[in-house]
């Protein structure tokens, strides 16, 4: 599969790990280029003048996941409501124009954190469907923010199997020494693992991250073909004139399933990817 450009946009340091760290690891493992944008500095409100070195933690976590680039915009923590929406949209639009991401993961805006809400609105504008290179936008939940909201409006429609990358996600989260909490807090490492298992068990897999599809556009006459049909279609294209060759090609199709993590998880989607 061709290399994908993937953009992750999070409000605060560690949100990008909490929401989609396992999925990001799948992307980088598949050879996709992932860029992470963290909008707020995540220190000033809670830690004051005492620097906890969030920037260093951010880059360490990115390295664990294989993220190609980290872009910290440096807005003050919990003060996005003191800026106009355009102030936030403008740098995001520039990044999007520079990167041309096919897939965007963003913060869900319906939880208890005001910065998340405002950033989500800015993302909706910055990723308008006039940009044809954007194929899909997915919103992730954030432990200790999304589940504490009322009403609880986060209703995922996409489950990504992160059974093979859950340990990588937890290792990346552990880089944020100031943000990890003792169990049973939702941001403890044990609770994050339990969370992934609980989401995954809903779809009979070991561990998952979940997303709400904000927009997914299939252009140029393509069809939303499920992965199982993609595999069957590829198998049917094998010539039957040489049974040995046919068997080898069929095994090749089975052993080279789609490397895109969202395609791997398409059987769990209500709207499977092409």
Structure description:
- There is one protein chain.
- This protein is α/β, with parallel strands linked by helices.
- It folds into two domains: 5-217, LmbE-like (Rossmann fold, 3-Layer(aba) Sandwich); 225-274, no CATH class.
- The chain is built from ten helices and seven strands.
- Strands 3-2-1-4-5-7-6 form a seven-stranded mixed beta sheet, with helices on both faces.
- It is globular, with a radius of gyration of 19 Å.
- Residues 227-261 and 263-274 have low confidence and may be disordered.
Brief digest:
This protein is of the alpha/beta class and 274 residues long.
Note the main attributes of this structure.
single chain, Rossmann fold, 10 helices, 274 residues, seven-stranded mixed β-sheet, globular, alpha/beta, 39% helix
Globular, elongated, flat, extended or rod-shaped: what is the shape? Answer: globular
- Per DSSP, the total helix count is 10
CATH topology name of the largest domain, in short, is Rossmann fold
Average pLDDT value? Answer: 85
SS strand fraction: 15-25%
Which secondary structure elements does this structure contain, and how are they paired or packed?
Layout lengths: L4 E6 L4 H15 L3 E8 L3 H4 L6 H12 L3 E7 L9 H15 L3 E5 L6 H13 L9 E5 L17 E4 L4 H9 L14 H13 L6 E9 L10 H10 L6 H13 L5 H4 L10
Parallel strand pairs: 1-2, 1-4, 2-3, 4-5
Antiparallel strand pairs: 5-7, 6-7
Helix pairs in contact: 1-6, 3-6, 4-5, 6-7
């Amino acid at each position: 599969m061709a290399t994908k450009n993937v953009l992750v946009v999070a409000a605060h340091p560690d949100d990008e790990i909490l929401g989609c760290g396992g999925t990001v690891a799948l992307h980088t493992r598949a050879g996709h280029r992932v860029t992470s944008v963290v909008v707020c500095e995540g220190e000033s409100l809670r830690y004051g003048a005492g620097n906890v070195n969030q920037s260093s933690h951010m880059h360490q976590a990115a390295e664990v996941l294989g993220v190609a680039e980290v872009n910290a915009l440096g807005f003050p923590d919990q003060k996005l409501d003191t800026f106009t929406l355009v102030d936030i949209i403008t740098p995001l639009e520039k990044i999007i124009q520079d990167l041309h991401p096919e897939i965007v993961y963003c913060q869900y805006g319906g939880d208890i954190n005001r910065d998340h809400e405002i950033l989500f609105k800015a993302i909706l504008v910055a990723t308008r469907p006039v940009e044809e290179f954007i194929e899909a936008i997915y919103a992730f939940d954030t432990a200790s923010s999304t589940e504490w909201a009322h009403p609880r409006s986060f209703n995922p429609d996409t489950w990504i199997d992160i059974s093979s990358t859950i340990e990588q996600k937890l290792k990346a989260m552990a880089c944020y020494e100031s943000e990890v909490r003792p169990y049973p807090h939702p941001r403890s490492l044990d609770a994050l693992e339990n969370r992934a298992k609980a989401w995954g068990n809903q779809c009979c897999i070991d561990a998952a991250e979940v997303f709400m599809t904000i927009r997914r556009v299939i252009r140029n006459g393509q069809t939303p073909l499920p992965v199982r049909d993609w595999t069957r279609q590829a198998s049917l294209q094998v010539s039957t004139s040489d049974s040995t060759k046919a068997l080898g090609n069929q095994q090749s199709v089975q052993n080279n399933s789609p490397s895109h993590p969202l395609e791997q998880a398409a059987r769990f989607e209500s709207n499977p990817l092409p």
